């Protein structure tokens, strides 16, 4: 079933782009409802996952555009360790990069998440975002440079 | 090497910084491996980039827990939409929309068919609203007729009666009526 099969990826993108569980849940719900209503418009010229990525990233960009820039974000990092000190260090490392990613312009954030978190190819990202290959490469490259600029603040 | 205050597109050795960033992020082979291997500027930049990019990859690979109940929440929302929109005909008027479910349309068609002399039993298998134009409906009917009248004349009479009633009762336009005559009765 569409929702069960794809919700994890759709939610992951929304959470990493928006940085808030509540906003991500809303975005995912809106995305699936939109997908259901627009099902007739899915013409099979792209894969279902590409189509869902497209819907959820558009949704996320709308949320970001409407959001005040100072909004506080919550970072949920599953505890992978029983040692509380290591868990805390883990969270610290994660939050440092997450804050940097949250500071990127929305379009760069979306492209970076699709590439680094979802592991999509440049071609796939081009189909999701309706961009040419050079445009995708440029956007991801700019996102990487912007993220790396902040690296000194991570340690 | 400080990554934050790089304004120069090239390192002191002339190697392009952009290429090193992509090399590290993509885990790609160097463009000029021979130069890079022996160049202290390249090595320093690569080391700083690898350390920093490692943190990005750490961020990227953290698993995400899908909240419990998300599927249920999505499905509840979609089911509510289906119930509201799913199989209803829609007539858009100046003062609002009128929705008529397919089962109501099918009942109107069945009753209309029964008014035609010579029709003994009628069962409306379905009414399907045209998804592209929700004011148009197509019917499929099964009939048992009396022995006597010509079947095609009777079928046309049934079509005319259904179209008239459906349009009078519901305002819908009938795009087609498929009729299967499945039984012929000598007496009711």
What sort of overall outline of chain A do the alpha carbons produce when their principal axes are compared? globular
Continuous helix count of chain B: 6
- Mean of all residue-level pLDDT scores of chain A: 87
Oligomer: heterodimer
Rg of chain B is 36 Å
In N-to-C order, the SSE pattern of chain B is: HHHHEEHEEHE
- Head-to-tail CA distance between termini of chain B: 98 Å
Tell me about the biggest sheet of chain B? Answer: 3 strands, mixed
DSSP helix fraction of chain A: over 70%
Strand order of the largest sheet of chain B: 3-4-5
Structural category of chain B = alpha+beta
Task: Detail the poorly predicted runs of chain B.
Answer: none
From the spread of the alpha carbons, the general shape of chain B counts as: rod-shaped
Compute the number of strand runs of chain B. 5
Radius of gyration of CA atoms of chain A, rounded to a whole number: 16 Å
SSE pattern of chain A, N- to C-terminal: HHHHHHH
Percentage of residues in strands of chain A: under 5%
Instruction: Identify the most extensive interface between protein chains.
Output: A-B, 38 and 34 residues
> How many H/I helical runs of chain A?
7
* Distance linking N and C termini of chain A: 44 Å
Average pLDDT confidence of chain B is: 86
Summary of the model, kept short:
By secondary structure, chain A is mainly alpha-helical. Chain A has 7 helices and no strands.
Provide an overview of this structure.
The complex is a heterodimer of chains A (155) and B (188). Chain A has helices at 2-18, 21-37, 48-66, 84-102, 106-117, 122-129, 133-149. Chain A is mostly helical and 155 residues long. In chain A, helix 1 (2-18) crosses helix 5 (106-117) and helix 6 (122-129) crosses helix 7 (133-149). The longest helix of chain A has 19 residues, at 48-66. Chain A is globular, with a radius of gyration of 16 Å. By secondary structure, chain B is α+β, with helices and mostly antiparallel strands. Helix content of chain B is 46%, strand content 25%. Chain B is built from six helices and five strands, in the order H-H-H-H-E-E-H-E-E-H-E. Chain B has helices at 17-26, 33-38, 40-61, 70-85, 102-114, 151-170, and strands at 88-93, 96-101, 119-129, 136-146, 173-185. In chain B, a hairpin with a 6-residue loop joins strand 3 and strand 4. In chain B, 24% of the residues are buried. At the A-B interface, helix 1, helix 2, helix 4 and helix 7 of A face helix 1, helix 3 and helix 4 of B.
């Amino acid at each position: 079933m569409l929702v069960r099969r794809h919700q994890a990826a759709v939610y992951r993108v929304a959470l990493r782009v928006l940085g808030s569980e509540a906003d991500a849940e809303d975005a995912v719900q809106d995305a699936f409802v939109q997908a259901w209503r627009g099902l007739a418009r899915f013409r099979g010229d792209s894969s279902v996952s590409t189509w869902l990525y497209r819907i959820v990233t558009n949704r996320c960009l709308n949320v970001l555009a409407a959001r005040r820039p100072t909004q506080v974000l919550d970072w949920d990092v599953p505890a992978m360790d029983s040692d509380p000190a290591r868990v805390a260090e883990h969270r610290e490392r994660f939050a440092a990069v997450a804050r940097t990613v949250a500071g990127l312009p929305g379009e760069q954030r979306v492209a970076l998440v699709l590439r680094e978190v979802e592991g999509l190819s440049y071609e796939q990202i081009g189909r999701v975002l309706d961009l040419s290959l050079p445009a995708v490469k440029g956007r991801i490259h700019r996102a990487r440079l912007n993220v790396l600029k902040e690296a000194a603040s991570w340690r | 090497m400080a990554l934050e205050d790089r304004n120069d597109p090239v390192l002191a050795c002339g190697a392009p910084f952009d290429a090193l960033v992509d090399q590290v992020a993509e885990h790609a082979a160097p463009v000029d491996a021979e130069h890079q291997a022996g160049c202290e500027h390249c090595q320093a930049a690569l080391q700083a980039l690898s350390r920093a990019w490692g943190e990005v990859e750490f961020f990227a690979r953290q698993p995400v827990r899908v909240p419990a109940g998300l599927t249920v929440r999505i499905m509840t929302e979609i089911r509510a939409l289906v119930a509201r929109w799913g199989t209803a005909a829609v007539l858009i008027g100046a003062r609002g929309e009128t929705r008529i479910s397919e089962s109501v349309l099918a009942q109107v068609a069945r009753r209309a068919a029964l008014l035609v002399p010579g029709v003994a039993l009628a069962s409306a298998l379905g009414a399907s609203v045209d998804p592209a134009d929700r004011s148009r409906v197509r019917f499929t009917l099964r009939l048992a007729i009396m022995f006597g009248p010509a079947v095609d004349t009777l079928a046309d009479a049934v079509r005319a009666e259904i179209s008239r009633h459906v349009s009078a009762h519901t305002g819908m336009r009938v795009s087609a009526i498929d009729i299967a005559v499945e039984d012929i009765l000598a007496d009711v």
